[in-house]
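Thread: Newbie trying to understand structure tokens

Hi all, I'm a second-year student working on a class project, and my supervisor (Dr. K.) asked me to get a predicted structure for one chain before our next meeting. I've only ever worked with sequences, so writing a 3D structure as a token string is new to me. If someone could post the tokens and maybe explain what I'm looking at, I'd be very grateful. Here's the chain:
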Amino acid sequence: MSLFDKISDFMQNKLNPVFGKFAALPFIQAMNHSFMSYLPLVMVGGLATLGISISWQPYLNFINSTGIAAILTLIYNITLNLMGLWTAAAIGYYYSNQKGIRRYAIVNIFVCAMAFLILTPYKVYDGVTAFDITYLGARGIIGAMFVGYIVIHVYKFCIDKNIYIKMPEDVPPFLQDTFSGIIPAGFIGILFGILEVLAEKAGFSCAIEVVYTLLAKPLMNLGTTFWGLFILFALPSILWFFGIHGGSATQAIIPPLLMPLAIENATAWAAGQPLPHDITMGTMALMSGGGLVCWTILMLRSKSPRLQALGKMTTITSLFGLSEPINFGLPLVLNPYLMIPQVVPVYFVLTWIVTKIGILPPAHSLYVWGVPMFVSGFLAAGVAGVIWQLILTVVDYFWFLPFFKAYEKTVLEEEANGNSEY
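---
Reply by user tm_fold:
Sure, no problem. This is what the structure looks like when written as tokens:
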């Protein structure tokens, strides 16, 4: 058995089951669904950020004089600046489904939101008591995951042990579910109230700050180093090469690390301040799409009828970032000829360099999957983002070309021999 076969066998038979089990964990599934569920809020918040950040003075005068700027700022604050709260609520719903208490999922949206807000500081400003928004947004996302995990386990314990108010059977089901949540919600409120008091006694502003300081901040710092980011961006492609769905396997790793950084950039951009992070979740918009488009162009220009047909089929899907048709159709999965350009993230290395030296501005919005190429670049970094996507597409084309030609030669030989299967 060759070295390649041994590595492939190890990935398929040893690592694939591990990643599969990890991706199938109930809490990981709940997190994945949660991040996707508030995608509309992310998109609306990103567009609002863009709307208040265009630095053309006649435009700024118009939106300020008409009140549009105030509306866009309000939309931004209620969407991106409350992502921690929305994360807690979404996990409350989806983790309830995963843990077998689906009938209480709606109730747990509010219970998780309550628990999260208990751990969030509120202060008196000019005689008005208000929540401090610091940990309601990006900095609260990891804390929201912690809240959702604890709340659902406590709630499920109460239900399993019959620690809840039982209503007569003739009471409508929605009322039964509502009343049955009173005692569990009370326990949860007391538990999280105690955690908040202990955090404040320890010198923290709130319990969410404890999670951010001890867990979230070190993890996000790891995600700002070159090699940490290199591994983050290379890992999905490496897994895809061995037939493991890279997006699903890393969904619980990449967004929690990079999404808070993207929200902090969006917050700074909306406030007209320098962007604090060079590489964030939004940077994926600047790097995505070009590689898939290049594979499509190469196939369209191929002498192989099979590859030409696949190129036509993937023209639209590549523009929208849908990789499965190329991963399994070209294929990129277990294709030794195309392994190197697939798993080496040249796009990240180049993006990191031009961002560090100031040629490319950091992304000021979040990455939204499914937004077509060039539109995603414009939303992330304006005209500079579109130009960079074009440059990366050209670079990828010539980087992929020699490897594709080597693979194309084998396909043409197989077709000449009457065997068009890879």
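A couple of things are worth pointing out once you decode it. The mean pLDDT is 82. The two ends are 20 Å apart (CA to CA). Feel free to ask follow-ups in this thread.
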